[in-house]
Amino acid sequence: MDTILQVRDLVTKFYTLDGVVHAVNGVSFDLQQGETLAIVGESGCGKSVTVLSLLGLIPSPPGRVEQGSALFRTPFGQQDLLKLSREELREIRGGQIGFVFQDPISTLNPILTVGEQIKETLTRHLNLSQEEARERAIRLLADVGIPDPELRYKSYPFQLSGGMRQRVVIAIAIACNPQIVIADEPTTALDVTVQAQIIDLFQRLRSAMGMTLIWITHDLGVVAGLADRVMVMYGGRVVELAAVEELYQNPQHPYTRGLLDALPRLDSRETRRLVSIQGAPPDLRLPLRHCPFAWRCNYAYDHCWQEIPELVATAPDHQVACFYDLNKGAPRHG
Ligand SMILES: Nc1ncnc2c1ncn2[C@@H]1O[C@H](COP(=O)(O)OP(=O)(O)OP(=O)(O)O)[C@@H](O)[C@H]1O
Ligand SMILES: [Mg+2]
């Protein structure tokens, strides 16, 4: 498989009055052409900061991408996203990399019709005439499942429902046939039925366009039908990375297991109480010298308090950062 994006050792910090927030601490992953990679983890674990760092969207100050590389393969060669100027990144955003954020309201301009906004993206990044861009914008509105696209082209964002607005944002994200689409919690602001429709839409677009997708969510339940691989983050680090079935069937990190145990089971007849993982996520302002999950982990032993575990491969498409082997029920080395 072809790697389209190779992120290595990404470090992003925020220099706040309350101290330095170590938001992303050495994140590495590969994104393969055509795959959907889900990034999951509790609130504050660094999912958004990871992708915002790649897109050059970290507010600075107080934020700073301090280290790392993000090699993005394009038809014109390979570029390190972290070395590009703001202008170069602006060209890539919306052009070669489309993105959909949680809240469609903040992405759309309230005083422009949705048609004008799609057209604006098209004419900025592609060499299209006004008429070609208009036709393509209407086609895009139809592609993302908006009824009466000709009519809706002339609507303002406030005239559309939340779900329809998110469809418009998706139309803008895919308008220029980007090589990667990044969706950061794109369904969180929507009600459950609309959430399911948007996930269906992504599934359909993914097969129709051969889309490469990064899907961020705090809900492992949403991931099953959509992702090929899953990256679990905790405390600004990757703690587990595996193919989706492998992760569900054989979670190797106690945190991942905790997330899976917390899912409501539709296949189970017994009514179980929803469990959630006890304790709070780590304070990212404190320097870390041990496993970030040790505080909350039922399996932590002395070594977990002495060193930060690195990601190691336990199978061809499975990496985990944990000193304890859940399958053996014993420390990995010892
Ligand atoms: N502008 C900022 N200033 C200071 N700290 C920030 C800023 N943006 C993010 N952070 C901190 O960086 C850490 C990672 O935040 P991030 O937004 O990536 O979390 P997340 O995993 O996306 O969570 P959520 O699921 O709530 O969206 C958090 O501790 C957060 O408080
Ligand atoms: Mg986020």
Helices, strands, pairings?
Elements lengths: L2 E14 L2 E14 L3 E5 L6 H8 L8 E12 L2 E4 L5 H7 L4 E4 L3 H4 L6 H12 L4 H14 L5 H4 L9 H13 L5 E5 L7 H18 L3 E5 L2 H4 L5 E6 L2 E7 H6 L4 H8 L50 E4 L2 E3 L3 E2 L4 E2 L3
Helix pairs in contact: 4-5, 5-7
Bound molecules: adenosine-5'-triphosphate (ATP) and magnesium ion (MG).
Magnesium ion binds next to α1.
Architecture overview:
With 334 residues, the protein is an alpha/beta fold. It has a domain at 237-266 and 274-331. It has helices spanning 47-54, 86-92, 104-107, 114-125, 130-143, 149-152, 162-174, 192-209, 220-223, 244-249, 254-261, and strands at 3-16, 19-32, 36-40, 63-74, 77-80, 97-100, 180-184, 213-217, 229-234, 237-243, 312-315, 318-320, 324-325, 330-331. The strands form 3 sheets. It has an 8-stranded mixed β-sheet. Helix 4 packs across helix 5 and helix 5 packs across helix 7. The mean pLDDT is 91. Adenosine-5'-triphosphate binds next to strand 1, strand 2 and helix 1.
